[in-house]
User: Fold these one by one.
Assistant:
Number 1:
Amino acid sequence: EPEVTQTPSHQVTQMGQEVILRCVPISNHLYFYWYRQILGQKVEFLVSFYNNEISEKSEIFDDQFSVERPDGSNFTLKIRSTKLEDSAMYFCASSQFGTGGAGYTFGSGTRLTVV
Amino acid sequence: SQQGEEDPQALSIQEGENATMNCSYKTSINNLQWYRQNSGRGLVHLILIRSNEREKHSGRLRVTLDTSKKSSSLLITASRAADTASYFCATPPLEGRTSGSRLTFGEGTQLTVNP
C-alpha cells in the first residue's frame, strides 16, 4: 500500500538552528500538508500546499516556517530559527482530493527536539 | 471554537471486550474521519463517515454519526491487545477547499486493551 515517507525520524537541534524536515508524499496525490503534535496535545494543522504554493496556513505557521516542493517527489518543511517550543512531532500528509472528501495519508512523523 | 472533542480521554478494557469512543464537534461538517495513532507513530486513517450517513462498518469497526447532536462514536468490537492506541476524530471544513482542506483533530482517546 502506498505510504508517505518522512525523514529523519528523529532530529535533535540547538535552539536558533535551522532544520529541514523531509517528506515524500504519495506519488499521485496533489495536496500536501504539515501538522504538528506537541507531546500530550492534539494534532494541529500547520499548512496546506497545492499547485506549488501555500493554499492555507494556520496562525502557528509564522515567518520562521516555510515549505517547498523542490522537485517532483519531495515536500519539505523548514524552520529557520528553532525555539524550544518547536519541539514536537511533525507529520506530513497527502491527499488525492483537496476538499477533504476522502481520507488523508499521514507519514510516521519526525520527532523534533530543540535543546 | 474547538472542533472534535473525544471522550473518554482514556479507556482501559480487557481483550475481547468492546470499546466505545465518542466525539463531539461544534460546526457543521461534510464528513467525519477517525484516525488511530500508535504511541510515537503516525496517524492511520481508519474510516470516514459522510454527513448523510448514520452508520458505517469496516471489519471490527463501527462508526455512527448523529448530525443533530453533532456527535460520532467509534466502536471496536472484540478488542485485541494490538488495538491499544490513541484514537482521534477529525473533520475537514464544511466548505471544502479545492486547494486542500485542513483537518481539525480532537484531543483523542487513549485506549488500552489488556491481554
Number 2:
Amino acid sequence: EAGVAQSPRYKIIEKRQSVAFWCNPISGHATLYWYQQILGQGPKLLIQFQNNGVVDDSQLPKDRFSAERLKGVDSTLKIQPAKLEDSAVYLCASGRWGVDTQYFGPGTRLTVL
Amino acid sequence: AQSVSQHNHHVILSEAASLELGCNYSYGGTVNLFWYVQYPGQHLQLLLKYFSGDPLVKGIKGFEAEFIKSKFSFNLRKPSVQWSDTAEYFCAVIVNTNAGKSTFGDGTTLTVKP
C-alpha cells in the first residue's frame, strides 16, 4: 500500500510569513495526526482527527496554527504568522483507528529565518 | 496529562553488545505502548507494540520489550546489536480511550560501532 505523503519536504520562510503543509494519509485510515518535532525532542502532537472531526487539539497554538481535514481524507496544516520558534519538522501520521499503530510520512522541515 | 520519559538520550555500543533502553510513562489508566524507530534518512516506523496479554512482546529485527505495569515501564531490549541498529528510538503511549491521545518520549539515539 502507498504510504503517507507529505509536501513540501522542505520550506524556508521569514518570520511573520505564512506557510501551509499538505498530507495525504494511507487510504482507509480514519485517524490523522500532525506532530511538531523540534531538533533533539520527540514528536509533539498538535492535532488529531478522527475522520473529519477534531479529537484533540489541546497543544495546537490556535492563535497562529490551523488545520483542517478535507472530507475525512487529505489534511492541511497552516501557520500564520510564523515565528522563529516554529522551526521544526512537521510530521503527518495516519492510523486505522485512534489507539493503534501510526504510519508516518517523511515530514516537512520548516526553517523560519 | 500523560507523559513519557526515556532515560538515555544517547547510547553508544559495540556490535554484539546487549541493549536495554528505558521507557517510563505516567498515566493511571489503560494505555497502549509502542516503540518506534527512525533509521538515518528514513521515516519513523513501528518496532513493536503492546496492547494486552503477554507482557513480553517481540518485534522486528530481534527486538523485544517488557511491560511492567507496577513500574509503569516498557523497556526495549535486544540481546546482540548490529551496526544496522544505529537509529533513533522513540517510546510512545496512547491512552486507551475511544480516540486515544498519543504522547512520545524525546527519543534515544543509538550508535553501534562496528
Number 3:
Amino acid sequence: NAGVTQTPKFRILKIGQSMTLQCTQDMNHNYMYWYRQDPGMGLKLIYYSVGAGITDKGEVPNGYNVSRSTTEDFPLRLELAAPSQTSVYFCASRPSGGVSYNEQFFGPGTRLTVL
Amino acid sequence: AQSVSQHNHHVILSEAASLELGCNYSYGGTVNLFWYVQYPGQHLQLLLKYFSGDPLVKGIKGFEAEFIKSKFSFNLRKPSVQWSDTAEYFCAPYQAGTALIFGKGTTLSVSS
C-alpha cells in the first residue's frame, strides 16, 4: 500500500490564483482530513469527511473548499489564494473500525507559498 | 470543544538525558490519546496511542506515555534520548465525531 499520497509537494501561487491540492489513500478508509500546519501553532483542522459524499467544516475552513466523490480521493481547493494561506498542508485518513480505530495516517504534506 | 495544552515549546537536552513532555487535555469523557512525531522535513508518524486498559503505554523507539485520568494528562517520557530523537512532538486527543485535536507541539533538540 502507498498509504496517503499528496500532490504537489511544493507550490508557489500568486495572490488571487486558485489551485487544488490532491490527496489519495489506498487503505479504503472512510474518514479523511485536511490540516494546515503553521510554525508554533500545531495542526489546525480545515475540513474532514466521514465518507464519500459527506464533508464538514473543521476549525479553519474559510478560503477553502473540499469534495469527496470517491472513498479514495479528498481534494482541497483554494479559490482565491491569499498570503495567509501560506502553510504546509497535510492530508490524513483513518479507518472506521478495527485495531487502528481513530489512528490517523498522514500524507507527506504540500508546502504552499502565496506571494 | 476539546482543547490540548503542551507545556514545553522547546526542549534542549544532551544525549542520554531523560525526557518528559507534558500534555493536558480538556475532555472529561472517554478519550483516545495519541502522540505523533515529526522528524525534520518529514510527515507525522504515530509514536504511541492510548485507547483503554493499562495507563502506561509503550511506543516506538523507547518512548512511553502515562495516562492519568484524574489529572487529564498524557505525558510522554523517554529514559535516555538520542540525537536522532531531535524532532517535533505533538500530543493529540481524539475529539469524538470529528478528528484529532493537536497541541502546538514541542520541539526537541538533542545535542550529541
Number 4:
Amino acid sequence: GQQVMQIPQYQHVQEGEDFTTYCNSSTTLSNIQWYKQRPGGHPVFLIQLVKSGEVKKQKRLTFQFGEAKKNSSLHITATQTTDVGTYFCAGLGTASKLTFGTGTRLQVTL
Amino acid sequence: DAGVTQSPTHLIKTRGQQVTLRCSPKSGHDTVSWYQQALGQGPQFIFQYYEEEERQRGNFPDRFSGHQFPNYSSELNVNALLLGDSALYLCASSFDKMTQYFGPGTRLTVL
C-alpha cells in the first residue's frame, strides 16, 4: 500500500532559525496536504497543493509540491515558539484515501 | 459555527469490551472519516462515510465498524477490544472528501 515518510522525525531549533521538513510518497499523489498538531491537540489543516511543482506561501511558511508529485516540503523561515508542534503531510493517492506521513516534531527554544 | 465535535473525550475500557464513539461534523459537511492515532504516530485512516454508506476503508479489521446517520453525524464501534486499540480516535469531516477538519478526538485506553 501507499506509504508516506517524513524526515526528520524530530528537530530542535533556536527561535529565529529556519526549519524544513520533507515528505516522500511511495506512489504518485493527486494532491498533498499539510497539517499541524500542537502537543495534546488535534491536526489542523494548513494547506493543499495540487499541481506539479506548485509553491504556496503562508506568511513565514513555504510549501512545495515536487515535479513528479511524489514529494513535498514545508519550510518555515525565522521560527517562533508558536511554531512548536508536529507537522504532518498527507497524500491523496489514486484510491482517494488520505495517507498521513510519519510527522516531524518541531521544538523551538529561545 | 461549531466545528467538529466528538464524545466522549476520554474512555477507559477493558480487553474484550465493546466501545462506541460519536462524532458530529462541521456544519455544511457531509463526509465523515475516522482515524486512529497511536502515541507518537500519524493518524491512520480507518474508514470514510458519505451518504450513510462506508465509501473507503483502511487496513483495519472487521472489529472496527461504523455508521452515518441522516444528519451526517457518525459513530465508530470497536468490538472485542485489544490492548493495542488504545489510541486517540479522531473524527474528521469534509465537504470535498479531501480537506479534513478534525475534531478534538476521543482518548481510548484499554486495560
